[in-house]
User: Fold this.
Amino acid sequence: MMLRRLAQFFLALAIFTLVSAHGFVQQVTIDGTVYKGNNLNVGTPAPSIIRLVSTNSPVKGSTNSALNCGQDAQLASLVGNANPGSQLEILWVGGTDGSSNWPHNTGPLMHYMAKCDGSCSTYDSTNAEWFKISELGLEADGSTWYQASLSSRAPVNVTIPSTLAPGNYLLRAEIISLQLAMSQGGAEFYPACIQLQVGGSQTQGPTSSEECLFPGCYSDTDAGILTPNIYNPPIQYTFPGPPVASFFPGGPSSTIIASSTSSPTATGQCKLSGRSTNEDVVKRDSKNKRMHKRRLVRAH
Assistant:
């Protein structure tokens, strides 16, 4: 009887640890306005701008349809107001209710946008055309990932491009956890979609070669997804997907900046809020300067 109880205890502990070892986006702040998300497994979701997913577990495989906005992502009922140059703070948490912190520490943070056909609250993003606006990888020491700072509940600060034309947009925040990516299929994807209405009077946007579909942007054998040497320094990391879109002022960004200040970062860059370090610049691998557009071929 004692052995049976111990087995049940360790099984429950293992399940709890597994559930706690994943996470989701719980809150988004736009220019100081806070938009709460829903915890997972709620009966009736509260109004939000964050599309609610059904699980905190990662999406596996680059051809998985859930790579778009997350597993079983539901349309959100609200749309957040933003403008070119607006600052978004995205809070990632662990578990299913946000009571634990983000658990992973290896892999990049990336952000994409796509224009909605009509209001994003009713838009099916299956065929959305995404362009990248920021990417954040290794710190200046070449071995510590900025993702590790999420474990202290530091939100990721993302800047809406300052020349972006007005319209309805989805912002797709993504973490790729690489702790199991030494073999093909091991990468863990955490996508989350945020519904926005961008105002202003700007006129620019991406070219068609800077856009891609999800799934379709990635391959399981891409250098930034299959990473057999991820724990063998010095780490040479190549961000997957297209480069940051080139319509940002000054052209596409080739550096990632993290700063402890509250001042805006340059378009095409993102930072972690609340950091205590000085400004760090991480150079992007030159092999990732390619521009491409992989479109998913669908059977009819």
About this structure: Confidence is low (pLDDT under 50) at residues 1-19, 250-267, 275-300.
